[in-house]
């Protein structure tokens, strides 16, 4: 197993060049950038001597767990794409982290980001997901990033809807290609309405004119839906009134109510007078055929 240790750092060319003038401890204390990408590293050892580390490159390795980074309170950039990571964890002390690259891992849930109050970029594209599963988002993490996160890359993750990203009010760039999103117009409208700062959607620039057009379009669509729902409610109520029988307020005098549509009838309802016939005993009775009831219209 290849572990990232201070001794491995000591063997690097950069330290060899500096070792003549300073000790390993001094070198590690001054170290701000560390690049150990594509080194077959499987684990991260104690690197607490690198207290001033700001940028760490660990992509293209075989790391399965994010660990031993609690010391890196000055870290601003973390590159760990194309490893074997399945869980986002142990990042709570990285209060200055602004860019996090975790694409090409095996992450199924975007979580563990609650304390990253400075995070501006999140890259989780192309996760190696189990068949039939999609990448999902922990609402707590998304909510905690609502005022900071600007750039999000969620491409190639079988995602079929993005309502979970609605709280990201400062979002300016979203990359979501090669997913299972269906209604593109509705998708863009959601993003434009919820993210006033959005400037780029999968490389397509969003200007203020197009944003305002879609906002107005959505408002018009919502108003029409509200009107349609109101009309449907009235229709359902009228249908209920005709079918409830004795519960109808005029059921005790049906012939009277039917004969006075202008007084008791509701607007938009057409009534048809019943046929009055006598029975075998000479008594009056109202007779409605199925055809008569079908002519009641709204």
TrEMBL record:
<protein>
    <submittedName>
        <fullName>Protein phosphatase 1, regulatory subunit 42</fullName>
    </submittedName>
</protein>
<dbReference type="InterPro" id="IPR050836">
    <property type="entry name" value="SDS22/Internalin_LRR"/>
</dbReference>
<dbReference type="InterPro" id="IPR032675">
    <property type="entry name" value="LRR_dom_sf"/>
</dbReference>
<dbReference type="Pfam" id="PF12799">
    <property type="entry name" value="LRR_4"/>
</dbReference>
<keyword id="KW-0433">Leucine-rich repeat</keyword>
<feature type="region of interest" description="Disordered">
    <location>
        <begin position="245"/>
        <end position="294"/>
    </location>
</feature>
<dbReference type="InterPro" id="IPR025875">
    <property type="entry name" value="Leu-rich_rpt_4"/>
</dbReference>
<dbReference type="InterPro" id="IPR001611">
    <property type="entry name" value="Leu-rich_rpt"/>
</dbReference>
<keyword id="KW-0677">Repeat</keyword>
């Amino acid at each position: 197993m290849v572990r990232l240790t201070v001794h491995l750092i000591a063997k690097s060319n950069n330290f060899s060049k500096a070792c003549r003038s300073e000790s390993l401890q001094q070198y590690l204390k001054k170290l701000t950038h560390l690049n150990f990408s594509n080194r077959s590293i499987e684990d991260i050892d104690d690197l607490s001597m690198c207290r001033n580390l700001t940028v760490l490159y660990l992509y293209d390795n075989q790391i399965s767990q994010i660990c031993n980074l609690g010391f890196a309170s000055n870290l601003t950039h973390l590159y760990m794409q194309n490893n074997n990571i399945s869980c986002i964890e142990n990042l709570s002390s990285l209060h200055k982290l602004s860019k996090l690259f975790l694409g090409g891992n095996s992450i199924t849930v975007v979580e563990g980001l609650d304390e990253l109050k400075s995070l501006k970029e999140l890259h989780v594209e192309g996760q190696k997901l189990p068949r039939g599963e999609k990448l999902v988002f922990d609402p707590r993490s998304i909510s905690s990033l609502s005022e900071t996160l600007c750039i999000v890359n969620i491409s190639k993750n079988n995602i079929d809807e993005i309502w979970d990203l609605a709280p990201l009010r400062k979002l300016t760039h979203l990359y979501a290609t090669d997913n299972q999103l269906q209604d593109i117009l509705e998708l863009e409208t959601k993003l434009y309405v919820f993210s006033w700062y959005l400037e780029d959607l999968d490389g397509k620039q969003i200007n203020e004119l197009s944003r305002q057009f879609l906002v107005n379009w959505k408002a018009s669509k919502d108003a029409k839906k509200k009107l349609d729902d109101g009309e449907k409610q009235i229709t359902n109520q009228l249908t209920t009134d005709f079918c409830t029988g004795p519960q109808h307020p005029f059921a005790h005098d049906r012939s009277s109510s039917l004969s006075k549509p202008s007084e008791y009838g509701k607007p938009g309802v057409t009534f048809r007078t019943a046929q009055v016939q006598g029975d075998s005993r000479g008594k009056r009775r109202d007779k409605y055929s199925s055809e008569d009831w079908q002519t009641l219209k709204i």
